[in-house]
Every structure is written in C-alpha cells, then in structure tokens.
C-alpha cells in the first residue's frame, strides 16, 4: 500500500511539474478541448452547464476570446436563426437586479472588439481562469499541500 501511495504521489508531482514546464502546450490543449466542446455546446448538457458557470463566474466568453463561438453551428454567422453571429447570454454583462436578456449577445460576432466592451465579456475564459489561478496561487498551493501531505 505504501509503495502504491508513493507512486501516486510521484506521478502527481511529475504531472504538475510537466504542466508548468510546458505551460503553453497545456494552454493550447485546454483551448483545443474547449473549442471542441463549444462545437457541441447545445448537444452536451454537462459541457454547457460548465461553460455557462465559468463564463458567469470568471466574467469571460469563449475559449481564447468571444469570437471562438463562431465554431458552433448555431452561433456561426452563416447559420439561420436568432443565435446566428451571436454568443450565449452568459457572455453578457448583467445587472444584479435586472431580468436577464437572453438575446443580449445577438449579432456581436461581426462587430469590433472595442464596440463590445460594454455589452459582452471579450476576454477568453482560458485567460480568465489562469489569471484567477495566478491571483490565488497561495490558496492553490495550500490545497495542494492539503492533498499531498496526508499521502
């Protein structure tokens, strides 16, 4: 049992070190998987719920930026329907006591970034999550120690 636990601990440490050393590749892999999920956004309820939560919590939109939503067949500018050339409402700025406008991201993909700053979040979620991790690295280190020490 001790050897199994030691191997798990070493693998966890190696995984963390490799992720830090190859940060750019890690970010690229994450962006690639987020974009793959965005393609199936309305078909995969679990991914949709996670993406909606992340976009609301971290005030971000898409993977690398808001224009990533063009990969989704409903949000692509060539698609028919009300969602065409738009982003999900979770990308939009919202006021605390207002009713959510679910079409607030309507026709934003064909506009310039500066025109959208007060309408939707233009920062990508990958960057927003990494900024949050860097701002809270002490808490993350404490959590890691809390997991690693008992092992």
Secondary-structure blueprint:
Elements: H1 2-21, H2 23-39, H3 45-57, H4 113-116, H5 125-135, H6 137-148
Provide keyphrases for this structure:
151 residues; mainly alpha; Cd81 Antigen, Extracellular Domain, Chain: A; 0% strand; endosome; Tetraspanin/Peripherin; disulfide bond; transmembrane helix; Tetraspanin_EC2_sf
Describe the structure.
The protein is mainly α. The protein has a single domain (2-148), classed as Tetraspanin (Cd81 Antigen, Extracellular Domain, Chain: A), CATH 1.10.1450.10. The chain has helices at 2-21, 23-39, 45-57, 113-116, 125-135, 137-148. It is elongated, with a radius of gyration of 19 Å. The relative contact order is 0.13. Keywords: Cell membrane, Disulfide bond, Endosome, Glycoprotein, Membrane, Transmembrane, Transmembrane helix. This is Tetraspanin-15.
């Amino acid at each position: 049992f001790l050897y199994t636990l030691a191997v798990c601990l070493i693998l966890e440490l190696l995984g963390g070190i490799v992720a830090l050393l190859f940060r750019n590749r890690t970010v690229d892999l994450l962006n690639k998987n987020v974009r793959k999920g965005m393609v199936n956004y309305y078909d995969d309820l679990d991914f949709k719920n996670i993406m909606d939560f992340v976009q609301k919590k971290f005030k971000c939109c898409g993977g690398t930026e808001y224009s990533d939503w063009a990969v989704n067949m409903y949000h692509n500018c060539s698609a028919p329907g009300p969602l065409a050339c738009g982003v999900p409402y979770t990308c939009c700025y919202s006021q605390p006591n207002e009713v959510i406008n679910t079409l607030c991201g309507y026709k934003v993909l064909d506009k310039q970034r500066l025109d959208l700053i007060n309408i939707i979040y233009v920062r990508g979620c990958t960057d927003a999550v990494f900024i949050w991790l860097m701002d809270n690295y002490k808490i993350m280190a404490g959590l890691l120690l809390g997991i690693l020490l008992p092992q």
